[in-house]
Design goal:
four-stranded mixed beta sheet, mainly alpha, 3 domains, globular, 508 residues
């Protein structure tokens, strides 16, 4: 994901190194002609769905490699509860065609970054910073941002922009998009990598037009309404962005740089606000308050920030606050104490959180999941089975159960559980990693290597996956007690991944 300078870690430490070489190559290209007039909105794009998916995969691969990339099953489950209804609404409205539905990835990548940002990439990949999850007041505000980004994808805005640059190879355009991601957040860092004029060129060529922004607003508004979310979420989120823009955003809202507020967008939303007069909005739900608190706590890395979360839970006036506010503060404080490895204090805070959330089923489940995380981190994996449902179809429960069983010597049960899971979702890299560990614990080296390779496929690193498959083939050639069915599967998958690697290679 994109980076922001933090006081306790180098700015852009992973992603910028990864894209620096690509951007230097981009800077050496001859100047491109002025962009042609954008196609009329609604017109088709020159780029095929498969080509756009491949371009997005190249960019997403670099984001998966970034040190700030985060696979958090609890937040991902919450966001999917918003994202899936939006996708369904886009299908119903005809915005999401069957070709795009099947051909695009529709994956959301999370970054452990406290800045407020989200962005759409080619091929149905979306990026979301934890800072965005932490700042929105309710599900409806978050739905408005996701619906806007979804509309950029369904309307093929990125494809239209890239199709204008007919002289630029797709791999180079992907590099320019990566460069623009860095530049949109930290212009100084971007300019340090390439000449200033080239940096400005990359940014200007990849910004959405005003018409595209208005179209994403209009269609996104309709999609979120169709999905059952309160359209006032769009209005209140717009108010937040407008206020941040007026205050001359100092860096905490990089979303404004890729989606700048304009008088046209503001006027359009104001007119929609007048049409959407409804009773006063309901207070934030306890579930959302807890998930926003989780996002803020996971994004915090400085010790002072963690201590501030804990101190907030000790304020005498907290007990007089609404239950949702109490739950959020206590939830964040527990995570802060876990990060500081003070498990006794975390348990004491959990006891208070249990009392606050006991009456509401969803928050009570979130509290149990957090308790299971604390049990794992504190060296008590045997307690996890008493806190989560080991046969639940939910990803957080399944992964926590698998981790706990691995630590208590139940590798066979983990292998069976994760085999079923990856058959259902073969793009779950974390599940493949747990399966690999379970096979290794049973001495099944060939299967372990194959599962490790599949984990690399899931994060689009086909070169690393092919290396693992070749290592498995080398093991087969050495002979011994070989599972020939597994060896055959490995040969087939190696050939398939080799083809994917060729597709992912730079196209010149």
């Amino acid at each position: 994901m994109k980076h922001e300078a933090h006081p306790d870690r180098p700015a852009g430490r992973g992603l910028r190194r990864l894209i620096a070489g690509l951007l230097v190559a981009a800077a050496l290209l001859p100047p491109m002609p002025a962009p042609a007039q954008l196609p009329t909105l609604g017109d088709g794009s020159e780029m095929t769905v498969s080509a756009e998916r491949r371009m997005g995969a190249r960019i997403a691969r670099e984001l998966y490699r970034d040190p700030d990339y985060l696979d958090d099953p609890v937040i991902a489950e919450y966001i999917q509860g918003i994202w899936q209804p939006l996708l369904a609404a886009a299908r119903t409205r005809g915005e999401l065609t069957p070709e795009m539905d099947l051909g695009f990835a529709w994956e959301i990548l999370f970054g452990r970054d406290a800045t407020v940002n989200a962005f759409a990439l080619p091929g149905g990949y979306l990026g979301v910073h934890l800072g965005l999850v932490g700042v929105v007041a309710n599900r409806d505000e978050l739905a408005s941002v996701l619906a806007h980004e979804l509309s950029h994808v369904t309307q093929r805005h990125i494809s239209r922009l890239t199709s204008q640059q007919s002289r630029m190879a797709p791999w180079m355009m992907g590099a320019m998009i990566l460069g623009a991601l860095v530049l949109s957040r930290s212009p100084d860092a971007g300019n340090a990598m390439i000449a200033g004029s080239q940096a400005l060129a990359a940014q200007s060529q990849l910004n959405f037009s005003r018409d595209m922004e208005r179209e994403a607003d209009r269609i996104g508004y309709g999609v979120m309404t169709q999905a059952g979310f309160d359209p006032r979420g769009f209005v209140t989120m717009f108010d937040k962005l407008q206020q941040a823009a007026r205050l001359n955003d100092t860096g905490s809202f990089p979303y404004l740089r890729t989606h700048p507020m304009t008088t046209e967008r503001i006027g359009d939303m104001q007119s929609r606000q007048e049409l959407a007069v409804r009773p006063a909005a309901a207070p934030p739900s306890m579930e959302h308050a807890m998930m926003a608190a989780r996002a803020r706590a996971l994004a915090a890395t400085a010790v002072d920030a963690l201590r501030a979360r804990v101190s907030e839970a000790s304020l005498p006036g907290l007990v007089t606050q609404p239950a949702a506010r109490q739950a959020a503060v206590l939830y964040a404080a527990v995570l802060a104490q876990v990060k500081q490895r003070d498990y006794a204090a975390a348990q004491a805070l959990l006891a208070r959180l249990v009392m606050v959330t006991a009456a509401e089923p969803v928050p009570a489940r979130l509290t149990r999941l957090l308790s299971a995380e604390v049990a794992l981190d504190s060296g008590e994996p045997q307690r996890v089975a008493t806190l989560v449902d080991p046969v639940a179809p939910n990803r957080p429960d399944a992964l926590l159960t698998a981790q706990a069983m691995l630590r208590t010597g139940q590798a066979g049960a983990v292998a069976q559980q994760m085999q079923t899971w990856v058959a259902k979702d073969p793009r779950d890299a974390t599940a493949w990693q747990l399966l690999s560990a379970a096979y290794a614990a049973q001495g099944l080296g060939l299967r372990s290597i194959r599962a490790s390779a599949e984990a690399q496929v899931a994060v689009l690193d086909y070169a690393a996956a092919l290396d693992r498959f070749k290592a498995a083939q080398d093991l087969v050639r050495k002979g011994g007690n070989i599972d020939h069915i597994e060896a055959s599967i490995i040969d087939t998958r190696a050939r398939e991944v080799e083809l994917l690697l060729r597709e992912q290679a730079p196209e010149r």
